[in-house]
């Protein structure tokens, strides 16, 4: 029995396709869901907190308590953002035992913008570019030593980012 060129070509294609699939599966590319990876790290993805309209509700769902203002939380954000679609915001802190940092914007359609888990031994500093619908307070929450600390700054937006 002999194999024609067309039969060999189809067989080669199937072997290469199968090998590629196995390689991607080995790398974890196929079926990768960041929410499952987050849950696998002994934490649950805070989906409901990201759906909240008010910052108070988002913080309550995310942490279950309120934060106190602290001068140990340093937020860097512009006073005026010429484009609300890309507003640079960063936070750093001198607090020890920081376990998470969250960014909120009170006048956005959804208040919680980002939430970061900070692994032990990591420098507690995060920078992000956020979207802002309009002039609003930007709030940063830092969880350290089982307590919540915050910093707030008003950022004036001249061109809307979230639907404006």
What proportion of the residues is helical, as a percent range?
A: 25-40%
Q: Kindly provide the radius of gyration, computed on alpha-carbon positions and rounded to a whole number of angstroms.
A: 23 Å
Distance between the termini: 69 Å
Total helix count? 4
Give the CATH class of the largest domain: Mainly Beta
Uncertain stretches of 5 or more adjacent residues = 37-42
Kindly give the count of domains.
2
Mean pLDDT: 82
Derived from helix and strand composition plus strand pairing, the structural class reads alpha+beta
Written description of the protein model:
The chain has 164 residues and is α+β, with helices and mostly antiparallel strands. The protein is 26% helix and 34% strand. It has helices at 5-27, 34-40, 47-50, 55-63; strands at residues 68-69, 73-76, 80-81, 87-93, 98-105, 112-117, 125-130, 136-144, 147-157. Strands 1, 3, 5, 6, 8 and 9 form a six-stranded mixed beta sheet that branches. Strands 2-4-7 form a three-stranded antiparallel beta sheet, with no helix packed on it. It is globular. Residues 37-42 have low confidence and may be disordered.
